[in-house]
Amino acid sequence: MTFRDQMIFISMSLNRLVTDIPGTTNATFGKDLVGYEMPQPKIGIHRFVFLLFKQKCRKTVRNPPVSRERFSTRKFAEENELGLPVAALFFNARRQATARRR
Question: Which keywords does the record carry (predicted)?
Fold first, then answer.
């Protein structure tokens, strides 16, 4: 899961990375390579992307990301020979200003 609107010059921010998910189950059975970190978007509309890649076999991810910031999905997929995504989910979320307490 990546947060696309972290800052325009930072590019994508990695929120979670799970590998080795058996095809007959869900992500809870995979290996959490980068644990979930809740996005902290500023006010406005923000874009989030979930991508699913098919690994050739288990434990094929040899180069885990060193940082959540400036994460490049394309570079990560190329370095780990993942090919193109087999599924993707994209959504927008809006964070509104909260009312001040009196």
Answer: Cytoplasm
Alpha carbon 95 to chain centroid, angstroms: 19
Tell me, what amino acid is at 91? F
Sheet arrangement for strand 87-95: 11-14, 2-7, 44-52, 87-95
Q: Would you call 15 exposed, middle or buried from its count of C-beta atoms within 10 A (0-12, 13-18, 19+)?
A: buried
pTM of the model: 0.73
Backbone angles phi, psi at 23, to 5 degrees: -65, -15
Joined together, the tokens standing for residue 38 give 């809740």
Residue 93 forms beta bridges with which residues?
46
pLDDT tens across 38-92, in order?
A: 777 677 778 889 999 998 888 778 778 888 888 889 999 999 889 999 999 998 8
